[in-house]
Design a protein that fits this description.
Length: 966
């Protein structure tokens, strides 16, 4: 007992001594060391719980001194002769002891110690943050992350944060409202210097802090709105201090915990829909919107999910909840609507969904069976919001245009990023939605600039299916050009970039083909409208027309599309637009080649697709129109003449004009694919040839490898009316390439030939009467091309006619020319049509000479009684004399000898042709028309003619006036 009593006395004595020492050290300074005072405070904290407030106040001063020492450590000038490291080490040692004691108290009895210690620590952290905010090294720190790192690098502050975190961990499960309220109170009192504390604690307990912060903020917001119900809503809410604190806390946590914030916000909204209290149902949505108005980050987090849950039924429920509030506080409700408009204008994320929600609610287009529609009051409210929003956007865009200061319109920036979706929405809308969306698109284009505006206009061209939808192009263009004059040029760039990518990426795709075709048809409609405006003098020039004239390279690629409709639409567009004067040589060459290909393709389609002949006719006429326009370039005339003539005699096309394909070098016998040449006879012939050195290759003749020609697929012959029609079209197209002036004198093809109704085609002379003179350069090219086609070599292609007996030397060559011309009757038609040009006949002279030689060779040895009994030679002679006469190579009356051919014998016909040959030999051809037309024939050239007339006077007497001057 004595021992126990002695121990108690000793403890009491120590306690009294430590208490006196703590009181003496706290009141006076200098008599007791820092370590002794700290030990006394720690002793009292462990043994005397009622002294905790005094002890904590003492340690608050200790933490203050330690923080001041740490922050001033870098400033060496403030330590006059003292050792700052030793002082800081002494302070940290004492603070570590008290930190350990407090942490042990919290772990052992959290319910008693955690509220007290957390309140002390939070207040101390807030006070220190505010006190040393202007300290050098702190005031220059800008971002919250830098502030947090700076304070956590301070050991005393880190100890306090460790104590605070441990308190929160102990209370978050049992009393979360207490710790969150304390955090909010400290945040309100010491903000913004306290934000780093909130950020750190919130990152440690994100879900709890976010949920409790929102609930505390909503509770305080409801209290503020109830207390200030008779005042202006916005002013009363802004006086609530915790709102800014809530926004700050959530803003700090949003960087890493945005999903948790999103879930908490939506949970709060959904809870308000089913809440039992009127205040919660009415104030939750305004509270959320007020938070969003104070932080763009919270606005972007809240907007997408909130818009997605606002169905018609939810909107109607909100209307029922707000009805009483609207009637009792109209000014507050109007402020709420203005806040909604303000927030919509600030929304960049989900902007298109917001507009779609407003349109869907204000003007529902489709009434689904069983679905709830917005009530009339809700529709009227959304219409009012839409009008106010459009007015605000218009004012912002105009202010941006007129002032140097750029007005930020996040909604329009978000819509610009979803311009394709917004354009599709416009094209699918009708009624009042259309002008709203047109204004939105116009403001968006003016806000975002030329590229966005051009993208929207090009989307309309690619997506519009009706004239009404395409009409939005003009509305949007009219509004955009007020601020972007060059928008059409950029639009054409976008359109043709899409056309190029669509045709090169997946040319066989059905979707790509339909998009390309739709775009080309819409461009065609735009061009027609522009041409009408120019015709009415509403426009002096058209940017669309001028821009399309520079895109013939892309249109040229589209002409060869596998889709016939695309090819025809591109051809029609090219014809409507016309061709500029500065087309490059390479592009002109491509255009001529492609159009020539399409020309023959159209003739094939007209022959093969009788049910769709009108479409093929239109394609043919479009090709002829393009050829006529391009023929104003001298360079393209020659190209077209080459491409058309060479194409007409090709294997694939010659049957269109009644021709037959025979390989020029086919001189091997064949029949049924079996070689009938005797190899024995071939070797006998070899033995009779000139002796050569006897190599192994010359001892034995093994025949010709692959002598048997390939089997040709039979080509179904065309009807005569189709052949005549094709020949007329081909000849007329050549006239378009060759004629001198630009006046178009041809009639519509449907009026010239109509095989179904039995109308006869236009006669050759009729066609000539409608045509104009051929140019000299074209005539020269045309004659040279025909000579190249009919003569496989250039030997004996001199234009001068040799002695008639010289034809025996060129018999094989002349026969080949005759055969080629017989297989290609379209060339005969061309020769007849263009022989009125002396230049053409001059360059065609080698062919005419060969034809006359073949006819003369046959008539000279013929045993027929009449020349007409040799039909091919008879017809050929008449055509030949007719061509020579038109080309002024033989003058009258010698040019009338063709009238004698039906009555003379073959030999007499030979003599007449011989007379013509000798005249042409004595009067060589010339390409000068005046010289050619001034020639005459004397009696020496008419001697043979007169003799034949006298010998056959009984049946030729009526022709004497044609040859005698009577």
């Amino acid at each position: 007992m004595a021992t126990v009593g002695g121990d108690s006395l000793s403890v009491s004595r120590d306690l009294r001594r430590q208490l006196n020492q703590f009181l003496q050290g706290s009141i006076t300074s200098g008599n007791i060391s820092y370590e002794a005072l700290s030990n006394s405070a720690l002793y009292l904290l462990r043994t005397v719980p009622v002294a905790r407030h005094a002890v904590l106040e003492h340690y608050a001063l200790s933490f203050d001194e330690a923080i001041n020492t740490h922050l001033s450590f870098a400033d060496r000038n403030s330590w006059s002769g003292q050792d700052p490291e030793a002082i800081q080490q002494s302070q940290l040692s004492a603070l570590q002891d008290v930190t350990g004691v407090l942490l042990s108290f919290i772990k052992s009895n959290a319910e008693a110690w955690a509220p007290v210690v957390s309140s002390w620590a939070l207040s101390l952290l807030g006070l220190m943050s505010s006190k040393y905010a202007a300290k050098r090294g702190v005031q220059h720190v800008t971002s919250l992350n830098e502030v947090l790192q700076m304070w956590m690098a301070c050991p005393p502050a880190k100890m306090l944060m460790e104590i605070t975190t441990e308190c929160f961990a102990a209370m978050v499960g049992s009393a979360p409202d207490i710790c969150v309220d304390a955090l909010l109170e400290a945040s309100v009192r010491y903000s913004p210097h306290f934000d780093w504390v909130v950020a750190h604690i919130g990152s440690c307990f994100p879900r709890t802090i976010i949920t409790r912060v929102l609930n505390c903020g909503l509770k305080d917001y409801c209290t503020g709105s109830v207390d200030g119900s008779d005042k202006d809503a916005s002013s009363s809410r802004m006086k609530v201090p915790k709102m800014a604190s809530v926004v700050g806390i959530l803003g700090h946590l949003a960087a890493k915990h945005s999903q948790d914030i999103r879930k908490a916000l939506m949970a709060l909204f959904e809870a308000s829909l089913h809440s039992d209290t009127q205040s919660s149902r009415v104030t939750t949505l305004p509270f959320l919107l007020q938070l969003a108005s104070m932080s763009d980050l919270l606005l972007n987090i809240l907007t997408p999910d909130l818009v997605s849950v606002l169905s018609s039924s939810v909107v109607n429920q909100l209307h029922r909840q707000f009805t009483h509030w609207k009637r009792s506080s109209p000014s507050e409700y109007n402020s709420f609507l203005n806040l909604v408009v303000h927030l919509i204008a600030k929304c960049k994320v989900g902007s298109c969904d917001i507009i779609n929600f407003l349109l869907r609610t204000a003007l529902p287009q489709e009434e689904s069976a069983g679905s709830e529609l917005p009530v009339d009051e809700v529709r009227d409210t959304c219409i009012e919001i839409m009008h106010i929003l459009l007015f605000e956007l218009q004012r912002g865009v105009l202010a941006r245009k007129g002032n140097a200061v750029v007005v930020d319109l996040p909604l329009l920036s978000g819509l610009a990023e979803q311009s394709t979706k917004l354009t599709t929405l416009l094209l699918q809308s009708y009624g009042k939605r259309v002008p709203w969306l047109q204004k939105l698109l116009t403001y968006t284009s003016l806000q975002a600039g030329e590229n966005c505006s051009a993208s929207m206009l090009s989307n309309i061209v690619f997506s519009a299916n009706t004239p009404q939808q395409l009409g939005t192009f003009y509305k949007l263009r009219q509004g955009s050009e007020l601020g972007i004059p060059s928008v059409i040029s950029s639009t054409l760039v976008h359109i043709f970039n899409k056309l190029t990518s669509a045709t090169t990426s997946q040319p066989e795709s059905t979707a790509n083909s339909s998009n390309v075709l739709r775009a080309l048809r819409n461009l065609e409609k735009l061009v027609n409208v522009e041409k009408v405006k120019i015709k009415r003098k509403a426009l002096t020039c058209s940017t669309i027309l001028e821009g399309l004239k520079q895109r013939h390279s892309v249109l040229c690629d589209l002409l060869l599309s596998a889709n016939e409709d695309i090819s025809m639409c591109a051809l029609r567009l090219m014809t409507l637009v016309g061709f500029p004067n500065d087309l490059s040589i390479s592009l002109l060459t491509r255009l001529c080649s492609v159009i020539a290909i399409i020309f023959f393709t159209s003739l094939h389609k007209n022959t093969e697709q009788k049910d769709n002949a009108n479409k093929a006719d239109r394609m043919t006429q479009l090709c002829m129109s393009c050829i006529e326009q391009l023929s104003r370039y001298p360079f393209t005339k020659s190209l077209f003449i080459h491409y058309l003539l060479e194409g007409a005699v090709q294997k694939e096309n010659c049957h269109l004009f009644g021709g037959r394909w025979q390989p020029a070098t086919s001189n091997t016998p064949h029949g049924n694919g079996v070689d009938t040449v005797s190899l024995l006879e071939e070797n006998r012939q070899q033995s009779l040839s000139i002796a050569l050195p006897r190599f192994h290759s010359s001892v034995y003749h093994g025949g010709i490898i692959r002598q048997i020609p390939k089997t040709q697929l039979p080509v179904k012959p065309l009807q005569k009316s189709q052949v005549v029609r094709n020949c007329l079209i081909f000849t007329e197209t050549l006239w378009l390439c060759c004629r001198e002036n630009r006046q178009r004198c041809r009639q519509d093809l449907s009026g010239q030939v109509n095989s179904d109704t039995g109308h006869e085609p236009m006669e050759t002379d009729q066609v000539n009467r409608h045509m104009t003179a051929i140019s000299e350069s074209s005539a020269r090219t045309l004659g040279c091309v025909i000579v190249e086609i009919l003569t496989l070599d250039t030997l004996y292609n001199d234009v001068h006619w040799q002695d008639p007996d010289f034809r025996k030397v060129t018999t094989e060559r002349d026969t080949l020319v005759w055969k080629r011309l017989e297989d290609l009757p379209v060339v005969w038609n061309v020769i007849q049509e263009f022989s009125s040009s002396c230049v053409f006949v001059y360059y065609l002279s080698p062919v005419l000479r060969s034809l006359m030689a073949v006819i003369m060779n046959h008539l000279e040895v013929s045993r027929e009684t009449r020349m007409r009994n040799c039909p091919k030679q008879f017809e050929g002679a008449i055509k030949l004399v007719h061509c020579l006469t038109k080309g002024s190579m033989i003058p009258p009356p010698l040019s009338n000898v063709a009238e004698l051919f039906p009555f003379v014998s073959p030999y007499e016909g030979y003599l007449l042709l011989l007379t013509l040959w000798r005249y042409i030999k004595e009067n060589p051809p010339t390409e000068f028309e005046k010289e050619q037309s001034s020639r005459t024939c004397d009696t020496s050239h008419m001697f043979v003619v007169h003799s034949i007339l006298h010998a056959n006077i009984n049946h030729m007497g009526h022709l004497c006036p044609r040859f005698f001057n009577m």
